[in-house]
Fold this sequence. Notes:
Elements: H1 16-37, H2 40-66, E1 71-75, E2 79-87, E3 93-97, E4 106-107, E5 114-119, E6 122-124, E7 136-138, E8 147-152, E9 159-164, E10 170-173
Antiparallel strand pairs: 1-2, 1-7, 2-3, 2-4, 5-6, 5-8, 8-9, 9-10
Amino acid sequence: xxxxxxxxxxxxxxxxxxxxxxxxxxxxxxxxxxxxxxxxxxxxxxxxxxxxxxxxxxxxxxxxxxxxxxxxxxxxxxxxxxxxxxxxxxxxxxxxxxxxxxxxxxxxxxxxxxxxxxxxxxxxxxxxxxxxxxxxxxxxxxxxxxxxxxxxxxxxxxxxxxxxxxxxxxxxxxxxxx
Length: 178
């Protein structure tokens, strides 16, 4: 015969101290993640800069492949669009925006990011009208109007630049070369 076994009550769960330690560790990890990601406006600035540089490369490459007619990039302070030259009659030609999911028109979030444009070292005014003007022309052999597009967050020291060379090289810069 076996002696009577004693039943010990087993408690499962965590102590208050263990829970507090875990919560502190989660808080520290979340703080570090927030610091490494940065400001939401700065993140959006990086995203928009990469997007604009990417669609410029896409439009350049598309012209190289297809050999289509000349296109241009039209800039406004709060938006941009690729344009194509449309022949209305024998004497009239007009730049009209491409209606395309990738190539535009693309509206930047108002008050978050603004565009500036420089050509030959001089800042050019950007129109705020309903029509589009060509700022950067793209040729079907890869050449582009040499220029500098600056995207900035108004009221904050965040800005990024897209430098475009005559040969069609597109480079994203965090700071301007001195």
